[in-house]
Each structure stands twice: as C-alpha cells, then as structure tokens.
Design goal:
Blueprint lengths: L1 E4 L9 H14 L5 E5 L6 H10 L2 E5 L8 H9 L12 H14 L3 E5 L4 H5 L5 E5 L4 H11 L3 H22 L4 E4 L2 H10 L7 E3 L20 E4 L6 H21 L4 E5 L16 E5 L5 H5 L3 E4 L9 H9 L3 E3 L1 H4 L11 E2 L3 H12 L2 H18 L2 H15 L1
Parallel strand pairs: 1-2, 1-4, 2-3, 4-5, 5-6, 6-7, 8-9, 8-11, 9-10, 11-12, 12-13
Length: 394
C-alpha cells in the first residue's frame, strides 16, 4: 500500500489527523505501507518514530499542504479553472510520490482528502482510493446561502461552483471513495456520477480505551468546547454561542463557565464577547482531563461537513453533549437519548441549563452515549471493516 496524507498522521490531535492515523494504523497491521506526507507543522522526532514503527518507508515533504503565495490565491479567484480555487499543486510532492511508487511497487494507493488525490492519479496500474472526509463543495454552498452582502455571496457562489466541478472530475477517477456517514453517501450521489461500487462507508470513530470515563465527578456548572478557533466553523460556533446562548445560560445558572481549548484562543474571536466566565487553556496535548472535568460539552456548530469527532470523544469520556442538529448530523444519535439537541439560541440555552442542573439526566445520557460509541464507533471495529473493504478492492 502507498498512503498519501495531507497531514502528518501523528499525533492524532484534531479530526483529520485522527482519521488519517487510524486508517493508516488499520492498514499497517496486515500490509506493508509506505507513507508520503506533507509536513503541516514542524515534526518532533518522537512523532516520526511512532509512524516509522508502523510503516517501513516514510517520506515527509517539508511543505505545508495549503501554502501558496497571496498573488496565486487572487489569480485563482479570477481563473475559470476549477482547480485554481483548491490547494496549490506541489511539484516536490508529485516527484516524491512517483519516486516512492517506482521503488515500492504498490498494489493500491490511498489519498487522504482532495488535496492528496491528484498525486494518486498520476500513478498507473494501481487501485486508487480517496478519503473524501468532508464534502467541501456542499459546505461552500451552505456558506453561500448564509453569506451576508452581495460581494461575499458572489465569492462563495463562485468558489462553490469551482469546487463542485473539481470534486466531480476528481473523485470520479477513483476506484473507491470513502465517505464518513450514510447521509453524506446520499449527498455525494447527487452531484458526482459515482457507481455504487465506488462508494465506501467508513465512519469516524473514537479510541474506546483512550477516551474512557474515569469515574470522577465533574466540576459543577462547567462547559467545554474542544477545537481550534482557527477553523472557521469552530470560530463561528463560539461567536454564536458567546453572543446569543451563553448569556441566557448565565441568567439561569450564574456560576456557569466555559472552557475553550485550541491554539487560536481568544485572539480569533470578535472583541466584546468574553467575560470572566470564559477561559482559554490554549492547545492541550491531552484534552481528556478538561473534558472529563466538565459537566457538559457544547457543540453549537452552524456550518461544516463530515461528522464531528469532538462529539464521539465526549461520549466516550462520559461527558454529556448538547449540540445543534448541524453539529450532530451524520451520527446515529437520538436526541434525548444519547445527547440533547437544539437549534434556536433560547432552546440551546434552556437545554444546557437543564442538563447542568439534572444529575440523573446527565448520568442517563452519558451511559447510553457510551454504549452507542462502543457498539457503532470504536476505531478497532471500523478499522477492520475498512481493511476488508480495501482488501476486496486490491
């Protein structure tokens, strides 16, 4: 196998890296896997050692996957070429992939996300798999529908049309496209002419041993949101929460406080949204202590695509979740059974305040959510299902 990654797949400290790491780990158990990856952040030696124990051959391209000069970015908006709006093409990555393929002679190549997909297509005589992860064209369409102002709407619409054409042309050339939910399997059929055999359902999951409850009582009236605010859907979710929801929660529960993890922190938010009830611990190597210590995890997402690992990880840790329907979409959850769900600010605030004040409800949600992830979303079982799918193709 040849594994092409947009992100270096360790440590698994955000959604895309976690998925890349877990799929690589599943393949490496019974196959010889070579990895070629961009260096999205400076690598520590111990991270490289973990991956080298799984892969006999590891090649790292010392470039960030989406780095491109500002001039090329603006020219891309003016171009009619669909790929001009997507990530810049790396000659170094293309050359290295060909060199490794000549040495490795892979039976199958797997590209993690649309950014790595073009390098897989340059190889002949192999089966090709792409991990779609997020349907970015549909995400851009949602942003177009929500955009304020004519210029912003035009830009979003042009980007959506370009990316839709690009994804349609790109993904149709692969033998297998991996999709994270049954919902997205239906969506991708609507705008990409794929055969049924080209679509493979591989959900996101959670490491059930790593994300496990420890039996400790959480701190009263404590909320947590995990995720970098440098990612626009996360930033939008927190600005929405702090402006329209959190003040109502504080009226009902004056002691309520919120912890927001992630490297971007308060600098990513508009001024005037914060009070003494919000804290920013910054980037955390291990988010488990903070999530376990919280009475509830809030996921007030209004945009984005794919399925949210932050919900699965909170469920694994035994921390109840309050989410919008957008945040929980694609997951096989039932509102009121596995989590609480609300889309209007007043309802979201009411549900959160209710959860903070009801230990019995928290215990019921936590127990049933943990049972759900054990049954449906353990990475070990997902990895075995994925491996069988790839074996059948190869």
């Amino acid at each position: 196998m040849l594994f092409l990654s947009t992100w270096f797949p360790y440590p698994p400290n955000q959604g895309s890296k976690t998925r890349a790491y877990q799929l690589l780990k599943a393949l490496a158990q019974h196959h010889d896997v070579a990895l070629v990856s961009f260096e999205d952040v400076p690598l520590r030696p111990e991270w490289l050692e973990v991956v080298e124990r799984m892969c006999p051959l590891v090649e790292v391209i010392r470039e960030r996957p989406f780095a491109r000069p500002r001039l090329r970015t603006w020219l891309g908006w003016l171009s009619l070429t669909p790929s001009a709006v997507v990530a810049g093409y790396s000659r170094r990555m293309a050359d290295r992939v060909r060199e490794v393929a000549d040495r490795w002679k892979p039976d199958l190549v797997l590209a993690m996300t649309f950014a790595a997909a073009p390098y897989a297509l340059q190889l002949g005589g192999v089966r090709r798999v792409v991990d779609v992860d997020n349907l970015l064209a549909l995400m851009l369409y949602e942003e177009y529908m929500q955009a304020q102002g004519p210029l912003r709407r035009v830009r979003r619409y042009v980007a959506y049309r370009k990316l839709r054409r690009y994804e349609r042309r790109l993904f149709s050339q692969f033998d297998l496209c991996l999709i994270t939910s049954a919902l997205d399997c239906g969506r991708i059929r609507e705008y990409i002419p794929l055969r049924e055999a080209q679509i493979g359902l591989v959900p996101n999951g959670v490491d059930l041993d790593y994300f496990a409850p420890n039996g400790r009582t959480p701190e009263p009236d404590s909320l947590v949101f995990t995720g970098s605010l440098a990612y626009d859907p996360n930033r939008d979710a927190m600005e929405y929460f702090l402006q329209e929801i959190f003040p109502q929660i504080r009226q009902a529960r004056p002691a309520a406080r919120l912890t927001i993890t992630g490297a971007a922190g308060r600098a990513a938010l508009r001024p005037g949204l914060l009070d003494e009830g919000v804290s920013f611990p910054g980037y955390l190597d291990d988010i488990r202590p903070v999530v376990r210590a919280s009475t509830a995890a809030v996921v007030p997402l209004r945009k984005g695509a794919g399925t949210r690992l932050k919900i699965l990880e909170a469920m694994g840790l035994g921390t109840p979740v309050v989410s919008t329907s957008k945040g929980a979409e694609g997951l096989r959850v039932e509102a009121g059974v596995h989590l609480l769900m609300a889309d209007r600010p007043a309802e979201f605030a009411s549900q959160t305040a209710r959860l903070l004040g009801d230990p019995g409800l928290r215990a019921s949600l936590a127990e049933k959510a943990r049972r759900l992830v054990e049954k449906e979303y353990g990475w070990d079982s997902i990895g075995r299902q994925f491996e069988r799918m790839v074996d059948g193709l190869a």
